[in-house]
Design brief:
2 domains; 4-stranded parallel sheet; 202 residues; Helicase, Ruva Protein, domain 3; 6 strands; TOPRIM_RecR (chains A, B); homodimer; zinc-finger (chains A, B); 8 helices; alpha/beta; two-stranded antiparallel sheet; Dna Topoisomerase Vi A Subunit, Chain: A, domain 2
Chain lengths: 202, 202
């Protein structure tokens, strides 16, 4: 069959490789783009080519940046003595949306995994150890996911940093905002109970 | 907050305007693209710009094409005496995937709608009437969606073509392939019963 035309077919095939889009939704997306050629399709193509050309990893923290060092690493108002360790860029963005962390980051780029042969060097852990010494860091905040892989990696980092003497902390575990006990897993409830806080004056 | 960088932020905002992607999945898609800059992101940007530049509507049937007349309209092996009327390009592609229609198409570009002020001229219905006379068409197959709007439009087209004397047909209604009666709506079951076929020799 000759439909859709080859170039559109190729575009659909590329779109279908995006996470969250299958062949069907890629077709819908491409038809939508074609309908909005001027307002969406051309700007999107330009923005994509532009980002592909300019984006690079920050040489210090691993954040995405259009400059050799990212805006967070070069911002003098950010607290250099605190480093927040995250698994990937999406987690860094999530922390920034939270808006209350004023230190700097270290993006691991994944978690340790024997199965996928991901070792400490792949995760920029030696670079983290180097930063502790070079930048006068006083606290490392581990903001890794509360998954088995995340926690394994957190333990590994604790060991790797033991000799530096830096203070190490981790995000608190507990009931999330708006969380209903009935819908929470048992592990979260246990953790929240163990970490319960005395209400002063009560 | 300064994250993600402005150009990536702009790209995420554009991606989030695609149907089927929200802000969260647009972020995931963009991070995926950045990770696969060479294999996916640049080819996608190029394909998109290329399609945006080259794609146009076939002057006869309304199909997408990179030439003034689309490959189906210019293919001498396609039966010019049969025109299949569809609502939009996605429906044309669906018919072509079916693979058994050997005639040509007429893409309406929507359905009649008083609410959205879509009239017969917006749907290329006058162009359809013109084609009946010009191209020696003997049968018009209405392949409109089995929705209220689709069926209203089908009735309007029947009226508009009445004077031409052309034969008009519509896709059969009934139980879809693999359909289970228990999961079908009552309308489909009634339609399938009304259109039941005698099994010869039984």
């Amino acid at each position: 069959m000759s439909q859709p035309p080859t170039d559109i077919e190729a575009l659909i095939a590329l779109m279908a490789r995006l996470p969250g889009l299958g062949p069907r939704s890629a077709r819908r997306a491409v038809l939508h783009l074609i309908r909005k050629r001027g307002q969406v399709m051309l700007p999107l193509a330009t923005a994509m080519a532009e980002v592909a050309r300019s984006v690079q990893e920050c040489g210090r923290c691993g954040n995405l940046s259009s400059t050799p060092l990212c805006p967070i690493c070069t911002d003098p108002r950010r607290e250099g003595a605190e480093i927040c360790v995250v698994e990937d860029i999406a987690d860094l963005w999530a922390m920034e949306r939270g808006g209350s962390f004023r230190g700097r980051y270290h993006v691991l780029g994944g978690t340790l995994s024997a199965l996928d042969a991901v070792g400490p060097e792949d995760l920029r852990i030696p670079a983290l150890v180097g930063r502790i010494n070079d930048e006068g860091v006083s606290e490392v905040i581990l903001a890794l996911n509360a998954t088995v892989d995340g926690q394994t990696t957190a333990h590994y980092i604790q060991d790797a940093l033991a000799l530096t003497g830096v203070r190490i902390s981790a995000l608190a575990q507990g009931v999330p905002m708006g969380g209903e006990l009935d819908f929470l897993d048992d592990g979260t409830i246990s953790a929240a109970l163990k970490a319960r806080k005395i209400i002063p004056g009560a």
